[in-house]
Amino acid sequence: xxxxxxxxxxxxxxxxxxxxxxxxxxxxxxxxxxxxxxxxxxxxxxxxxxxxxxxxxxxxxxxxxxxxxxxxxxxxxxxxxxxxxxxxxxxxxxxxxxxxxxxxxxxxxxxxxxxxxxxxxxxxxxxxxxxxxxxxxxxxxxxxxxxxxxxxxxxxxxxxxxxxxxxxxxxxxx
Length: 174
What we know:
By secondary structure, the protein is mainly beta. It is 13% helix and 47% strand. It has two helices and 14 strands, in the order ααββββββββββββββ. The protein has helices spanning 2-11, 20-31; strands spanning 53-58, 64-71, 74-82, 88-95, 98-99, 101-106, 112-119, 122-123, 125-130, 136-143, 146-147, 149-154, 160-167, 170-172. Strand 12 and strand 13 form a beta hairpin. The protein is globular and about 50 Å long.
């Protein structure tokens, strides 16, 4: 915690250390819009136990909202979430109910929003985030879910304006 206090003192940035469940709740709350219809009504997930099937749900306007494959009750293969206009909102890959490989999220206009790599349901490797106009906003590196490596932040022209080295979820000085 000494590093956290040092960062606060030197930069004014408050860092709160949270557990994995809290982090998952934050991530879920920030992605909930992917499961809302055009009237912002929550679309309830359909539980699938011990079934092998492809589950497709639709918005009230007839557009697909979700497409996922289950194998013996586990998410398997490609998983798609759609915006209410029919454009893909998110493409994910699952193996035995865990996210694996490249996840791509898109803005409603179809442009790429983020590219995140997953390994055993955790961010792993380089993750890139973009602004709606298509230019890169930031690039982060993870190792088994922890912030690790060089993080870069970019301006509107794609020039690096800030870089932070991270190890085991904490920034460290150059």
